[in-house]
Amino acid sequence: MNEPQDEPADAAADIEAVERANTAFYEAMERGDLDELTGLWLPGEDLTVSCVHPGWPVLTGRGEVLRSYALIMANTEYIQFFLTDVGVSMTGDTALVTCTENILSGGPAEEGSSLGPLVGQLVVATNVFRRTPDGWKLWSHHGSPVLAETGEEEDEESPS
């Protein structure tokens, strides 16, 4: 007897493939591999890609998006992403990945040091992927900084 299925049998394989594509995106950034990163985005301009880096305006078009990553990589000595709260949802040939990017990064080294000062940042991200004959490709990335309040700020606003 066949049991009813909520999703097609290959949905789990699709989700795993999207998760691998999402991981590849962050690993390419960590390595500063612009060639690999370029291959992860949708090719051509049939579907205009877009990107919003935290604090940046919307970037549209493959050239503008890839130039932004080249600029970031050229000015970032070290970057590492620890992804948490990763969720994947799909419909047809489109997949949506949401996650929290726990970022550790460093700029150019100071004199006498091998690495510049490290800075931590939390960013919530949405990555949209499209299925292509060459696998899942990024269509859009949107990152927004997490502006967490501390207990000190709340205490300062409380009446005495």
From TrEMBL:
Q: What UniProt keywords are attached to this protein's entry?
A: Isomerase
Keyword Heme assigned to the entry: answer is: no
InterPro entries this protein is in?
Answer: NTF2-like_dom_sf (IPR032710), SnoaL-like (IPR037401)
Q: What GO MF terms are annotated?
A: isomerase activity
What Pfam family does this protein match (any one)?
SnoaL_3
Occurrences of domain SnoaL-like (ranges): 18-146
Return the SUPFAM superfamilies for the record: NTF2-like
- Keyword match Ion transport: no
Report which superkingdom the organism of origin falls in: Bacteria
PANTHER family attached to this UniProt entry: NUCLEAR TRANSPORT FACTOR 2 (NTF2) FAMILY PROTEIN (PTHR34957:SF1)
Instruction: State what protein this is by name.
Output: Ketosteroid isomerase-like protein
Organism field: Streptomyces brevispora
